[in-house]
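Q: What changes when adenosine monophosphate is included in the input?
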Amino acid sequence: MRIAILGPPGAGKGTQSKRLIEHLSIPHLSTGDMLRQAVSDGTAVGRSIEQLINSGGLVPDPVIIEMVGQRLDQPDCQRGYLLDGFPRTLAQAKSLDETLSEKGESLDLALELHVDEEAVIQRLQARRKTEDRPDDEMSTVLERLRTFRRQAAPLLEYYRDRGLLETIDGSGSPDDVFARIKAVTDKKKRS
Ligand code: AMP
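A: The predicted holo structure follows.
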């Protein structure tokens, strides 16, 4: 199954993604992880985007699209995958569709994790204490949420129009949220 998980920073995408990839035995394609890896490896891409990531902005579409395109060509993606943090813009969603249709494939599901903004801010503050991500600093968090709000509406509409969008209530314990996600993906698998 080819799935994209969508939602604001701090919605629990990372936590739920880990569970879902185990449940479905598919690779986890997190663009945030790929970019952080590029930064820590000091690659040319990494050096060019470090500032941007740390200030909460979005990496330019062509950079992300190229990076994801290369990853989708890897053999482990043949049985499906979970995209986490991508697509984030309408241009990325359209480009993903084009890439997939060239392979005769399409996305099966866009899972939106919906969490109130206040809850998201609280979660990100808690995460900062344990994970030490520079972009979890408060002013950056607010900028990342603003960026998300700006980009999310057209993206969600795009997937809603295609009948691919499933919105999941992301509040409550990780177990509760995962039970909701599992119900949706299991139903999709049967259909
Ligand atoms: P994340 O771990 O998904 O919150 O991503 C961390 C940061 O990486 C974001 O704040 C962006 O700067 C960058 N990033 C990750 N995915 C994308 C994407 N699809 N498009 C643009 N920038 C991205």
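Observations recorded in class: The radius of gyration is 16 Å.
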